[in-house]
Design a protein that fits this description.
483 residues; alpha/beta; five-stranded parallel β-sheet; 19 helices; binds flavin-adenine dinucleotide; binds iron/sulfur cluster
C-alpha cells in the first residue's frame, strides 16, 4: 500500500524535545519531553509505507506499526492508540524503554539512507496522548474491540482463577490478557509496589513512576487484584496456591533480580554496592527526595560504575544526579555495550566519563575499611564468544589504579532460587532458570506457566511482555481448550 499522505523526505528524525544536559544531570525529572502533535505528524510522514514492512517483524508483540503510523500522519490519534494498544498492553512504557534500534527501527527501510522512522517516539506519543484524552481513547478502543467474537472471548475464562507471581511486565501483560478473557486474576508481588523493574530499577528520569501506576490502574479497571508484600515461596508456595487457595493455574514471572558480583578482592569494603541496591533505594524508596522520604543512600565524590548495560547506565546517571563525579568502567568497547544507544548518548551528554576495554582487578581500601580506589587492567578484544561479541582478554602488565570512594557493580543478574526450591516438580536449569515452552509458557508442572526474565535470564521489557502474552494464551488453552 502506498502512503496516503505526502511523504516527508527529511533524512533525520524530528528531534526529541528534551531537558538541557547540564540541568538534567542535577534533577530526576524526565529527560525527554515527548513530541507535540505537530512533531508527531511530521515524523509519521517520514514512513513511506514500504511494501515489505520489515518493522513489523522487528516487534516482539506484533504492533501494527505502519497502520498506527498512518493514523498519526493523518492526525487520527485515537485510532492510532487503539491499533497500538490492541497489541501492546504497555505502550507508554515500551515507547520509552524498548531498544528500538535493535528491533523495529533497526530494520526500518528508511534507515538504509538516513535515520529510521522514530517508531518508539511515535508509540510514546500516542500512549501519552491517550492519557490526556481518556474519553476519546476509550471510545476508539471500544470500537476496535467491539463485535461478537470479542464478547464471546471475554467470557472464555469466566469462573477460572489465575495467580500471577511477580508484577513485572511479564506478569502484568499475562494478567491483563487473562482478565480480558474473563478470568479472575490475582497478582502476588514480593515488594510493596507493583511494577517489577519498572518501579524499582528503571529511574524516574527515564520512566516516570506515575505513568507505571496509570498502566497498573488500567489493569485494576479490568478487574485484576494485586497483593503486595506477598512473597510466594514464603507466604504460600505454588502448590498451596493451586491446592488450597483455589487457583486453577499459576503464572511465574519472578524476573532475574538477584545481582551478580565481580568476585574480586575488596568487594566487601564500605562504599561498594550493587546497582540493584542503589537503584532500589533511589527509585522504590525515593532516597532522592530526602528528607521528605527518609531512605538513606551513600554517595561518594568519585564513583566508578562497572558494567555496560542499561543497569550500569542507570546507576551511573543516578549517582551523577546525587552529586558524584562518575566514570563507567567496561571491559569491551563501545560497539559491544548492551545498553540502549540513547542511554549511552544521554550519559555522555550528562558528563559521565567512560573507560572502555578496562576490567577491575581488585578494590583497594583505606585503614577504616572504606574503598579508596580500584585497580584495573586494560583489555583487548579477541575472537567472538557464544554471545557473538568479541571476547575481551587482559593486556599483560597494563594494571593501573583509579581513585574512587564509591563503587557500583552492574555486571548482570540471576534468578532468585526461591520458587525453584519450593516448587517440587518444576524443572529448572543449572542457573535456576525455569524451563518453559516458548510458545505456551507451560512448565514441567501441570497448571504452572512461566515467562520473562525468570525463563530467559535478564533481557528486555518487550520480550517479557511477549512471553506474558503467549503464556496467557497457553493458560487459556489449558483452562478452556478451544474447540
Ligand atoms: P521483573 O520486572 O524483574 O519483575 C519480577 C517481579 O517479581 C519483581 O517485582 C519481584 O519483586 C517479583 N518477585 C520475585 N520473586 C517473587 C516471589 N517469590 N513472590 C512474589 N514476587 C516475586 N529493559 C528494556 O527493555 N529497556 C530498558 O531500558 C531496560 N532498563 C533496565 C534497567 C534496569 C536498572 C534493570 C534492572 C533492567 C532493565 N531492563 C530494561 C530489563 C527489563 O526491565 C527486564 O527485562 C524486565 O523488567 C523483565 O520483566 P519480568 O516481568 O520478567 O521481571
Ligand atoms: Fe514505515 Fe519503516 Fe515500517 Fe517501512 S519499515 S513501513 S518505512 S516504519
Amino acid at each position: 500500500m502506498a502512503a496516503t499522505y505526502e511523504v516527508n523526505k527529511q533524512l533525520e528524525k524530528v528531534p526529541m524535545p528534551e531537558q538541557d544536559p547540564a540541568a538534567r544531570a542535577c534533577n530526576f525529572d524526565e529527560v525527554a519531553w515527548g513530541y507535540t502533535p505537530e512533531d508527531a505528524m511530521v515524523e509519521a510522514r517520514r514512513c513511506i509505507q514500504c511494501p515489505k514492512k520489515p518493522c513489523m517483524d522487528g516487534c516482539p508483540v506484533g504492533v501494527p506499526i505502519p497502520r498506527f503510523i498512518e493514523s498519526v500522519a493523518h492526525g487520527e490519534f485515537a485510532e492510532a492508540y487503539a491499533a497500538v494498544k490492541a497489541a501492546n498492553a504497555l505502550p507508554a512504557i515500551c515507547g520509552r524503554v524498548c531498544p528500538q534500534e535493535r528491533q523495529c527501527e533497526g530494520v526500518c527501510t528508511r534507515g538504509r539512507k538516513g535515520e529510521p522512522v522514530g517508531i518508539g517516539r511515535l508509540e510514546r506519543f500516542v500512549a501519552d496522548w491517550a492519557f490526556e484524552h481518556p474519553d476519546e481513547a476509550a471510545a476508539a478502543l471500544g470500537q476496535a474491540e467491539g463485535g461478537a467474537d470479542r464478547a464471546a472471548d471475554s467470557k472464555r475464562l469466566a469462573g477460572k482463577r489465575v495467580a500471577c507471581v511477580g508484577s513485572g511486565p511479564a506478569s502484568l501483560t499475562c494478567a491483563g490478557e487473562l482478565a480480558k478473557m474473563g478470568a479472575d486474576v490475582t497478582v502476588f508481588e514480593a515488594l510493596h509496589k507493583v511494577g517489577g523493574v519498572l518501579v524499582y530499577g528503571i529511574p524516574e528520569f527515564r520512566l516516570p513512576k506515575d505513568l507505571v501506576a496509570r498502566e497498573v490502574s488500567s489493569l485494576s479497571d479490568l478487574g485484576v487484584s494485586f497483593e503486595t508484600n506477598a512473597v510466594i515461596g514464603r507466604l504460600y508456595d505454588v502448590d498451596e496456591l493451586l491446592d488450597e487457595q483455589g487457583f486453577d493455574a499459576v503464572f511465574v514471572g519472578t524476573g532475574a533480580g538477584l545481582p551478580g558480583y565481580l568476585g574480586i578482592e575488596g568487594e566487601g569494603l564500605n562504599g561498594v554496592m550493587v546497582a540493584n541496591e542503589l537503584l532500589t533505594r533511589v527509585n522504590l524508596m525515593k532516597a532522592y527526595l530526602f528528607p521528605e522520604h527518609e531512605t538513606p543512600v551513600y554517595v561518594g565524590k568519585k564513583c566508578i560504575v562497572v558494567g555496560g548495560g542499561n543497569v550500569a547506565m542507570d546507576a551511573a546517571r543516578t549517582a551523577k544526579r546525587l552529586g558524584a563525579d562518575v566514570t563507567v568502567v567496561y571491559r569491551r568497547s563501545r560497539e559491544e555495550m548492551p545498553a540502549r544507544a540513547e542511554e549511552i548518548h544521554h550519559a555522555e551528554q550528562e558528563g559521565i566519563a567512560f573507560q572502555m576495554l578496562t576490567s577491575p582487578v581488585r578494590a583497594l581500601g583505606d585503614d577504616k575499611g572504606w574503598i579508596a580506589g580500584l585497580e584495573c587492567e586494560r583489555m583487548e578484544l579477541g575472537e567472538p564468544d557464544a554471545s557473538g561479541r568479541r571476547r575481551p582478554k587482559p593486556v599483560a602488565g597494563s594494571e593501573f589504579v583509579m581513585d574512587a570512594d564509591m563503587l557500583v557493580i552492574a555486571v548482570g543478574s540471576k534468578t532468585n532460587p526461591l520458587i525453584a526450591n519450593t516448587t517440587p516438580g518444576l524443572e529448572v536449569t543449572a542457573r535456576n532458570l525455569v524451563v518453559a515452552d516458548e510458545r505456551t509458557g507451560a512448565t514441567s508442572k501441570p497448571g504452572v506457566f512461566a515467562g520473562g526474565d525468570t525463563v530467559i535470564g535478564a533481557a528486555t521489557v518487550i520480550l517479557a511482555m511477549g512471553a506474558g502474552k503467549r503464556a496467557a494464551s497457553g493458560i487459556a488453552e489449558y483452562l478452556a481448550p478451544s474447540a
